[in-house]
Structures are given as structure tokens and as C-alpha cells.
Amino acid sequence: MHIPDIRLHEPRTIAEACELLNRYCDISKVLAGGTDLLVDLKQGRITGIEHLVSLRNIDGLESVEETGEAIRVGALVTLNQASGNETIRKFFPAMIDTIGSMAAYTIRNVATVVGNIAGAVPSSDLAPFFVVAGGEAELSNGESQRRMKVEDYILGPRETACGEYEILTHLLIPKPPPRTGISYQKFMLREANALAVAGVAARLTLAGSIGGGGGAGGGRDVGGVGGTGGTGGDGGTGDKRGTGGDRSTRGTGDGEGGIMDSCIAMTAVAPRPVIAREACAFLEGKEPSKEVFREAAAIARESARPITDIRGTKEYRFDLIEVLTERTLEEALSRARGE
Fold first, then answer.
1. In angstroms, rounded to a whole number, what is the distance separating the alpha carbons of residues 111 and 34?
2. 293, exposed or middle or buried, with CB in 10 Å at 0-12, 13-18, 19+?
């Protein structure tokens, strides 16, 4: 296996990069970190590419900015740079924990946050986090920009809503409201440098007084719940576009600490991140408890559309989703309470 002969372009502006994409159309690709793209080219998963348009010389894409009510992450920010950023650590410790579970440390020195979303692989770790956090993708064609929810940006395996001559330049994450907690947990077949067999992100916002405060955060790898099996695949089947509607549900919370807002998203169990909308609707307005979370997890399980592949059977993935959902809800609750 080898990388085919490819010409590398290094534009200095987004406009120049988009013009190159326009000029070379289907035989060009955007290059940021390249940890997925170069492997795909080497293995022949992507063919016919003769030009790579590098973003590394374009100013403004290498920073994390706090802009009013959101955090803005540029396309050249690596996973390790994001993990070490104080603003992200302050508002989104769950993102830090998610990054820590991804790949190997040396790869995280090169791989980018935006690239993990732009690649649109079914087992993306950051995709469910951005979905539950209400993240947005910022696209540019060199002349104008537009934004859309991350959940709408990813259409299916390696398929996105990015226009033919557009570039995903930034990801935006709104700052969480008070009494909000986020958790991401996944199961892998080994401790590091492995794709998720299944993963779940959950966000809870509680009603009532702020009390002890609490930011959004949490996330860790979890132990197994059974055996694995199966043969080759990429993590999910079913309709590419999934279901429509809002990303979360809202309730009033009958008593102090009731669930006012929630979102649960799953990865590696469908062609794109799946929102467990029925489970979120079930949580609306309820007082959080182990029993409530156990029932919500059982409902969330039904939203998954897993396949059997080399990492696990579809039956095993259904079980994982139920276990992981309950655990993420419990940790999100703890974070929302500031514990």
C-alpha cells in the first residue's frame, strides 16, 4: 500500500482554498491533520484524488476563542491543543475526557477536533458530545459563511452537508446554562488507540436554584458487559438521515432539581450520531433517580440501529447502549449538581 502521486497546495486564505476546490472538483480533498485522510488514501478507501488543499498556512484556524456565549474551535486545533486549552477545560471537561479516550497521544498531536467531525465516521467520539452540547458547524465558501447544527451536518458514513466548494472552518459550542452536566462514556476492546464499540453522550439541565453550581463535564471508558463477536463492518446501518426534530426536550421540573432539559446521543450504533428522542421525552420534567435513568436507558436502547462487525455483535451493542446510557445520565446528574 502506498499514497498515490498527489500535488499539495498551500493557500493562505479560505478564499484561495475554496477556489482550488472549485478548480479541481472531485479530484481534490481538504487536508488539516490528515490522520484519517492519508490512511484512507494509502489503503485505497478513497481513490481518484490528485490534489490536496492544505489549511496549515491559513491564519485564524489554529485558535480556540471565547466569543460571547460560545467557544469557537478552529479547523487546525489539534486534539491535544484542545485538551490543554483552559477555556475548554473550564466549560467542557467532558470534551477533555472524550479526547483523552481517543487514539494515541502522538496521534492526538496531529489529529484535529474539526477533522473528527468532518470525517463523519460512524464511530466518531466527539460527534455525540457536540450533538448533546448543541454544537454548530461553521462553513465557508470563501465569500460567505453559514452555520448548522452538528447533528444536521453529518448525514451518513463519510457524508456531510458541506457544499462542494465549502470548507468546515470552525466548530462552535454554546456555553452550558447553570446546573448543566455532560458525560460521554464508551466501551472499547482495549484500553487505548481503539474505536468505540458503542458510545453515549448525555446532557442534563436541572430546574431549581443554582445551589452548588456545576458545569458541563464528565466522561470515561467503561468496563464490558459481555462478549463480542461478528464480522467486518463500520458500526451502523439504516437510513442515513435519521429522524428530524429538535435535539432535546424541555420540561419544567415539578420539584427542585427536576430535569428541565436533556439530550442523549449515541455513536457507533448507526450510520450517524443518533439522538434518543423518546428517552429525552421520557425524562422531561421528572425528578432524577436511578429508576428513572434505568427506564430512560431501556427506551434509548430502542433508538439504536447497530450492526454486527469485527468489534461486536448488534445484540451486544444494544446491551452496551442501555448500560452506557444509565451511567452517562448518572454522571451528568452528578456534574449538574456540582458534586
1. 7
2. buried
Rounded Cα distance between 224 and 300, Å, is 19
pLDDT tens by residue, 5-46 = 999 999 999 999 999 999 999 999 999 999 999 999 999 999
Helix (H, G, I), strand (E, B) or coil at 10: coil
Closest CA relative to residue 105, chosen from 80, 81, 86:
80
pLDDT tens readout for residues 225-240: 433 333 334 444 333 3
Neighbours of 113 (CB within 10 A): 28
- 108, 217, 311, 315 from 226: Cα distances, Å: 30, 27, 12, 10
How many Å apart are CA 327 and CA 220, to the nearest integer? 10
C-alpha to C-alpha distance for 311 and 21, rounded to whole angstroms: 36
Residue 10: the pLDDT is 98
Amino acid at 278: E
Percentage of residues in the chain with pLDDT exceeding 90? Answer: 81
Helix axes 290-301, 314-336, angle to 10 degrees: 140
Would you state the cell numbers that stand for residue 187, as one nine-digit string? 466501551
Contact 225, 216 (CB under 8 A): no
Mark out the alpha helices in 122-213 (DSSP H runs).
Answer: 126-132, 150-153
Question: Residues 6 or more apart from 16 whose CB is under 8 A from it?
Answer: 142
The values of phi and psi at residue 146, to 5°, are -145, 160
